[in-house]
């Protein structure tokens, strides 16, 4: 039964309010549904699985019984869908006021229409959100005002101009936002999209730069341009400059996606070996952490947590990263918390040279993520070398090579990078003390190899002799 699939998503609040909803004759006149819900709620209170058997559903004996059962099930589903729609609507005060405005207009309640319209304007002034949806709402208000003026025989140029202007702002912002979504997903889905009116919208904005005063337009305009013209850095910096002003003007889920546009731009530039964007990327992560855009449903993903840590360590911001690791470890999903925290803590300790505390974390943890496992082995490799534990190092190099060759889940590029690291560590061990020429040859070889894990550390070690 489809209705049960929806009920599975109910929160404690939903169970409480849907019972009142379905018991109200305004929304339901079928007592069977009340009985069904009561049985389901009893089962829920006992922490028992919810199924059709609980409400006594069994195969129908005849066509009439089947038709009645089908009708009741559909009515139950419709009641739940209506509740879910109502629950969303009743939590949106401005949407309620807009529907009230429409009702006043249709009933020719001109005085009350003006009062509700004034309330809406005041509410919108208080509302900090200024995303595309806000301007779509402004257009809908302008439409109601125009319709009311037409029906009252007082339609004027002012209402018509506002109607046109707000529709332009809303449409341009929404089209640019959708353009960013399509462009950012194009590579992931390995497909191309028909962009429709987007080229005309871009030209429209370029011909009317005053539209960029609206953050909902500016942020998606520069975001799209940064994605479509990655060689032009000014688009990225314009986007980054706007991010500081958006924290209260965009809902958190939308702000997260905007940050990811800028993050992905930096990652693409870093992949092109433009290391100056490491600083830009860390700035974005640090600002995003403060704005909590990387927190979803109360949690930070282990990948984001790890990536931020590794980047900050690469930039040698040891004090900041130590605070970040400890502050946000409790935001990791519980099932991944211990392993992820142990991994990043070991990485931090390794970077500051505290091998005595780092090694036990890596030697005792069995990381369920392959990338973490690879990096953990590489850290151990570094520490064995730094501490002169060459017997342990030789053993690790051999077992690491076997691990890389056997694990089919490891991507070819990753495998090549780590095998190159193993090869260069062996050469590093074999270097004769004081042989500068041999060191220079090895340094040149490492520099000229594209895929090398821990390349910075290898360059430091080969240059230290």
Element string (H = helix, E = strand): HHHHHHHHHHHHHHHHHHHHHH
Sheet-strand content, in percent, reads: under 5%
Tell me the structural class.
mainly alpha
Overall spatial form: globular
Output the radius of gyration: 30 Å
Number of strands: 0
Main beta-sheet strand count, sense and barrel state: none
Distance between the termini: 72 Å
Q: Number of helix segments?
A: 22
Kindly state the mean pLDDT as a whole number?
90
Low-confidence stretches: none
Helix content: over 70%
What number of structural domains do the residues give? Answer: 4
Task: Characterise this structure.
The chain contains 22 helices and no strands. It starts with a helix and ends with a helix. The protein is globular and about 95 Å long. The protein has four domains: 2-90, no CATH class; 128-273, no CATH class; 295-363, no CATH class; 369-465, no CATH class. It is mostly helical.
């Amino acid at each position: 039964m489809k209705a049960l699939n929806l009920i599975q998503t109910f929160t404690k609040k939903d169970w409480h309010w849907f019972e009142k909803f379905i018991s109200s004759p305004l929304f339901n006149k079928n007592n069977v549904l009340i009985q069904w819900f009561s049985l389901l709620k009893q089962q829920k209170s006992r922490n028992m699985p919810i199924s059709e058997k609980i409400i006594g559903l069994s195969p129908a004996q005849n066509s009439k019984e089947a038709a009645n059962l089908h009708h009741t099930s559909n009515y139950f589903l419709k009641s739940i869908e209506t509740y879910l729609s109502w629950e969303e609507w009743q939590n949106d005060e401005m949407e309620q006021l807009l529907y009230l405005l429409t009702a006043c207009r249709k009933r020719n309640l001109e005085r009350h229409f003006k009062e509700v319209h004034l309330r809406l304007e005041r509410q919108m002034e208080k509302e900090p959100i200024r995303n595309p949806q806000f301007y779509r709402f402004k257009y809908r208000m302008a439409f109601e005002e125009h319709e009311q003026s037409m029906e009252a025989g007082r339609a004027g140029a002012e209402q018509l101009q506002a109607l046109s202007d707000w529709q332009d702002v809303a449409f341009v912002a929404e089209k640019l936002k959708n353009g960013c979504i399509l462009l950012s997903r194009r590579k992931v889905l390995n497909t191309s999209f028909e962009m429709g009116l987007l080229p005309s919208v871009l030209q429209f904005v370029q011909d009317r730069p005053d539209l960029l005063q609206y953050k909902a337009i500016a942020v998606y305009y520069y975001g799209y341009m940064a994605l479509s013209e990655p060689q032009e850095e000014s688009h990225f910096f314009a986007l980054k400059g706007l991010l500081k002003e958006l924290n209260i003007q965009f809902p958190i889920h939308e702000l997260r996606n905007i940050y990811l546009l800028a993050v992905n731009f930096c990652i693409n530039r870093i992949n092109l070996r433009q290391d100056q964007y490491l600083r830009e990327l860390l700035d974005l992560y640090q600002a995003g952490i403060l704005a909590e855009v990387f927190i979803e449903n109360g949690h930070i993903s282990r990948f984001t947590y790890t990536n931020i840590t590794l980047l900050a360590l690469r930039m040698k911001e040891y004090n900041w990263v130590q605070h970040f690791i400890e502050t946000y470890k409790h935001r990791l999903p519980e099932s991944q918390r211990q392993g992820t925290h142990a991994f990043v803590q070991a990485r931090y300790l390794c970077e500051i040279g505290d091998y005595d505390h780092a090694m036990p974390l890596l030697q005792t943890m069995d990381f369920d993520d392959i990338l973490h496992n690879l990096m953990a082995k590489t850290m151990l490799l570094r520490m064995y070398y730094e501490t002169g534990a060459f017997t342990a190092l030789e053993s690790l190099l051999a077992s690491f090579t076997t691990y890389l060759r056997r694990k089919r889940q490891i991507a070819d590029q990753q495998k090549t990078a780590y095998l190159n690291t193993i090869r260069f560590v062996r050469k590093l061990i074999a270097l004769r003390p004081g042989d500068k020429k041999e060191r220079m040859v090895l340094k040149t070889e490492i520099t000229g190899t594209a895929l090398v894990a821990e390349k910075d550390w290898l360059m430091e070690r080969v240059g230290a002799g």
